Amino acid sequence: MAVVEPITRRAAPPPGVAALFEPVAVNGLTLANRIAMAPMTRYASPGGVPDETVARYYARRAANGVGLVITEGTLVGDPVNVAPEGVPRFHGDDALAGWADVVRAVHAAGGRIVPQLWHVGIYREPGFLPAAPALPVGPSGLDLAGEAFAAPMTGAEIATAVDAFARAAADAQRLGFDGIELHAAHGFLIDQFLWAATNRRTDGYGGAARARARFGAEAVAAIRQAVGPAYPIILRFSQWKVTDYQARVAQSPDELAELLGPLTEAGVDAYHCSTRRFWLPAFAGSPLSLAAWTRRITGKPVIAVGSAGLADSDFQDAFEGKATEPATLDRAVSAIGRGEFDLLAVGRAVLSDPAWAAKIRDGRTDELRPFDPAALESLA
Ligand SMILES: Cc1cc2nc3c(=O)[nH]c(=O)nc-3n(C[C@H](O)[C@H](O)[C@H](O)COP(=O)(O)O)c2cc1C
What we know:
Elements (H helix, E strand, L loop, with lengths): L23 E3 L2 E3 L3 E3 L14 H12 L4 E8 L17 H16 L4 E6 L36 H21 L4 E7 L2 H6 L14 H4 L1 H14 L5 E9 L11 H14 L3 E5 L15 H9 L3 E4 L22 H10 L5 E4 L1 H5 L3 H6 L19
Parallel strand pairs: 3-4, 3-10, 4-5, 5-6, 6-7, 7-8, 8-9, 9-10
Antiparallel strand pairs: 1-2
Bound molecules: flavin mononucleotide.
């Protein structure tokens, strides 16, 4: 099992950030604080198997004040669901044994952890395509640029993908994970159904927002059936796509409500709203963020994310290095105080500085390590 360095902490967080360090519950799971580690693909699991280095990487963040670790996207077991070397699988005895070690290490460090269950669908980039003659699956066979590349998903292919999510969730529960996060964001399979640009179906899976949510809702329902009522299911969604920052799955709060309704009814316990800057308004005419709208619409706990702890930068600069900026946390504390969201996920700041959360908690902001793209090269 991975061993992590011990930590020292002050009696109480500084008043300005205290709200981030209050406990919060998601379907019976109590988290020690409101800081989550955002899911980040690291390409560091050889042969798709997370090893000791990966376990230490996550445990180090858990030991240093992250209340909930959300793992990098990890592939559910559908033969057409593949990703480049180093992306971890969530199927196969070897990969699941590796994940069991990750869970043990994070729990030993006092943390909580959920895997991000990922089906890439018809994401047409090198390494993400199944070996020929197989083709990737997508709702209408359109890639993210709208180009026809495969046949629309058949009913059998839909059932296979739904089943892959359910089996992965059951495995997560068996391995001791504290819940699961479903990756329904950024233009991958579930989002390919949510997004009208990639979903042109005319059957019950396409058209109006409720229908576009049907595939995701079927995945959630199958997961719920597999894990029972008391196991946290978090769903991450976004407006933006990896290929298009201006893309939108919902044009208005009403459409967002239509989209989220079936997902909530199917059993989502918490939403994770992926934005580039968590404080920006989601729709014209209201200052509310996507997280705040989601909380208002669903009444569920919500995780916000996007540029926490970073200087106000353009997301395009993600890999160019930006100073760490505690001021964004004032916005988060205010938003939590106004009941706009419940947890704050932190990506690049926590990737660069494993002790980021502990330093914020202990008022050691002078010790914060700025985001440095070099951090992407290792699992320190
Ligand atoms: C290196 C890297 C890998 C990422 N991989 C994933 C992923 O596997 N799944 C996902 O949903 N988001 C992924 N993201 C997006 C992050 O979870 C997060 O939403 C984004 O970095 C914004 O948060 P930040 O400003 O705190 O970094 C990734 C981001 C980075 C920088």
